[in-house]
Write a structure and sequence with these properties.
Layout: H1 2-46, H2 53-75, H3 82-98, H4 111-121, H5 124-143, H6 156-236, H7 238-241, H8 244-270, E1 280-283, H9 284-298, E2 303-309, E3 315-318, H10 320-336, E4 340-348, E5 351-358, H11 365-369, H12 386-397, E6 401-406, E7 412-419, H13 420-423
Parallel strand pairs: 2-4
Antiparallel strand pairs: 1-3, 4-5, 5-7, 6-7
Helix pairs in contact: 1-2, 1-6, 2-3, 3-4, 3-5, 4-5, 4-6, 6-8, 8-10, 9-10, 10-12
Length: 430
């Protein structure tokens, strides 16, 4: 499913690039139409060259019709085969050259522009077919063309050299202008495809973790349940029932076991395993209060500086996974800043914004550059960095974002942005 989704996204990215390149071809064609009109006027009025204007106007009309059709394709976001589009352009250029001297027309140099566009836009096999077509059309023009009738007083060679100079200058300007822009489009496409491949790899990693988490959950379920039963028995037996210190220790152990169960449940949902848990109607203030109360009950020795600046409350739907996402970020902050963790809740541009602050050493530049990728952490040990990796991917599936930065006075800030419109309707984001 993930790979097919990535393939679909890649196809969309390629189609978007083709549309951008088609838009550039439309712009180039407008220049060609304007250039041909100017050339025809100059040749007829200034140089007094006898041209077959009616037939040239028909070819120019066909070029105009092709451009209007291309605009229609652009409006409908329809991507035709650029190979066929370039071939039609080549045929229309050949028709215009055939009416004006064929190979003796200096503007035959514009074939170079067409071949250059084919080289950057088409696949190698299509490009070589295009080169073959260019060679055939050039040979055709040598044998079949209308003569270019110059005035008797006009030396052909001088006129030809001047025309060749103009044609080469036009070629150089258009090649640099449009090929540069086409290459930029292709680089943007390659960057998007690289990002999609990276996202697909990360999602594939999540799926593998989900399968591993499923197996771990089945394996851990029985021993955790056994430990819960044993702790329950210990709490009631005469040897411990009258010992307040032992009762406290048993209660802490039971809380740790419950915490383990919650962590396993959260990892299962965060890694893609559907648990079918019912979404719980709540509110932003109620959700934050639940997170704060749960976290402070587990980390009794730490100070959680909680500031709720969300404003007027609003109803949302919550579940265990969403609480686990926030708890994971708080836990990461607590590991580097055991005495103090800050949590600020804001409402900004229709989003629920959670800012988690710590007084630790901050993130290394390399970690910030690859923030949210697996096994990317400032802490030593195998598997470090997976918590934030899961958080980042889960929140992005919700349409939100996670960012990290270092504070000027020391410590780090992790910001979770959750779209409220996604929290206010039923969803299956994990």
């Amino acid at each position: 499913m993930i790979r097919s989704g990535a393939t679909h996204d890649a196809a969309l990215s390629g189609a978007d690039t083709d549309l951008k390149n088609l838009r550039l071809l439309v712009q180039l064609r407008w220049l060609a139409i304007a250039g041909q009109l100017v050339t025809m006027l100059v040749a007829e009025l200034a140089l007094h060259i006898d041209l077959p204007l009616p037939r040239m106007a028909m070819v120019l009309g066909a070029l105009l019709a092709l451009n209007l059709l291309s605009l229609h394709w652009l409006r409908r976001k329809r991507v035709p085969s650029l190979s066929w589009v370039l071939m039609v352009d080549m045929l229309l250029l050949t028709a215009q050259l055939g009416l004006t001297g064929g190979g003796r027309n200096p503007f035959i140099a514009l074939y170079l522009l067409q071949v250059t566009l084919a080289a950057v836009l088409l696949r190698p096999s299509e490009c070589w077919r295009f080169v073959g077509l260019t060679a055939l059309l050039s040979a055709f023009l040598s044998a079949f063309h209308l003569p270019l009738r110059l005035p008797e007083y006009e030396p052909f060679f001088t006129t030809y050299l001047a025309g060749m100079l103009v044609a080469l200058l036009i070629n150089a300007v258009l090649i640099v202008t449009f090929v540069t822009r086409i290459n930029r489009n292709l680089r943007d496409r390659d960057a998007r495809l690289a990002a999609m491949r990276q996202q697909a790899a990360e999602e594939d990693h999540i799926v593998r973790m989900g399968l591993l988490a499923s197996g771990a959950a089945h394996e851990l379920g029985t021993p955790l349940a056994s430990i819960s039963v044993i702790l329950s028995d210990w709490r009631t037996i005469p040897a411990t029932s009258g010992d307040a210190e032992l009762q406290f220790d048993i209660a802490q152990m039971q809380k740790a076991v419950d915490r383990c169960k919650s962590i396993v449940s959260g990892i299962l949902m965060s890694s893609g395993e559907l648990r079918g848990e019912t979404l719980i109607p709540s509110s932003v203030h109620g959700f934050i209060a639940d997170v704060v109360n749960e976290w402070t009950s587990i980390h009794a020795t730490a100070t959680l500086d909680h500031q709720n600046r969300f404003g007027p409350d609003m109803p949302i739907l919550t579940d265990t996974a969403l609480r686990q996402l926030v708890t994971t970020v708080l836990d990461n902050a607590h590991e580097v800043s055991p005495q103090w963790v800050g949590l600020t809740v804001l409402r900004k541009d229709g989003n629920l914004v959670l800012q988690v602050e710590d007084r630790g050493p901050g993130f290394r530049p390399a970690v910030l550059a690859d923030f949210g990728k697996p096994y990317n952490s400032t802490k030593a040990g195998q598997g470090r960095g997976l918590g934030l990796f899961l958080v980042v991917n889960a929140i992005r599936k919700l349409g939100g974002d996670v960012t990290a930065s270092n504070l000027s006075g020391g410590g780090a800030l992790v910001t979770l942005t959750l779209p409220l419109k996604k929290l206010s309707v039923a969803r299956g984001y994990i």
